[in-house]
Amino acid sequence: MIKGFIFDLDGVITDTAELHYLAWKKLSDDMGWAFDREVNEKLRGVSRMDSIHIIKDHNNAQVSEAKLMELATLKNNIYVDSLDQMSPKDYLSGAQELLTLLRQEGFKVALGSASKNSTKVLSQLEATKFFDVIGDGNSVSKSKPAPDIFLYGAKKLDLQPNECIVYEDAEAGIDAAQAGGFYTVGIGPEERVGHADVRFDTMKEATLFAVKAHFKDLF
Ligand code: B16
Ligand code: MG
Known about the structure:
Layout: E1 4-7, H1 17-31, H2 37-41, H3 48-58, H4 65-82, H5 95-104, E2 108-112, H6 118-125, E3 133-135, H7 148-157, E4 164-168, H8 171-179, E5 183-187, H9 190-193, E6 198-200, H10 208-214
Parallel strand pairs: 1-2, 1-4, 2-3, 4-5, 5-6
Helix pairs in contact: 1-4, 3-4
Bound molecules: 1,6-di-O-phosphono-beta-D-glucopyranose and magnesium ion (MG).
The site of 1,6-di-O-phosphono-beta-D-glucopyranose has 20 residues, from helix 3.
């Protein structure tokens, strides 16, 4: 029986990818590093420190771990400032409606994001009220594709993984949820999340009705 839902944040509830892109781009420009949207796509669902390693490697740069942490902090300051412009108009289409319906139907709901800034993002969206548990980059040390963040959410919801459906837009996110024994809904193209139990191009299509229709024996 499905009793709970666990949602990734960026790419599922809202699209912070553009703000992450602008902040990494500013840092890269200041460093004289190459960085474009293709590289940014590789950072989807990836933790901040793993992200800066990907950018450093892309540039064949030699930088100490201490300096990388300093640079990641600089990027984060730019990113966090840019979150001030977010508001409830920035839900991905369909996300707010789904969260509202899950509350009405009495499902338990957790966040399972790699971001250490999820509290601020949810607050800007006025979405905090939709979540019983906030699992994010501050909750666990091993990031996706390790299942830890979703296992943390399920445990806090007092549910088993096979009682939860995870919504994810990243390949590593679907891998993480499957490694933990969760049912999965992939948001995005086949080549990215085609390994999910069910896939939708956008959140708008990933309604409770559509998900119930797919997992009909579990409701
Ligand atoms: P922060 P998600 C991820 O969010 C983003 O997709 C990824 O680009 C970002 O690096 C990561 O959060 C960490 O974010 O720097 O705010 O801690 O998709 O896991 O919600
Ligand atoms: Mg994501």
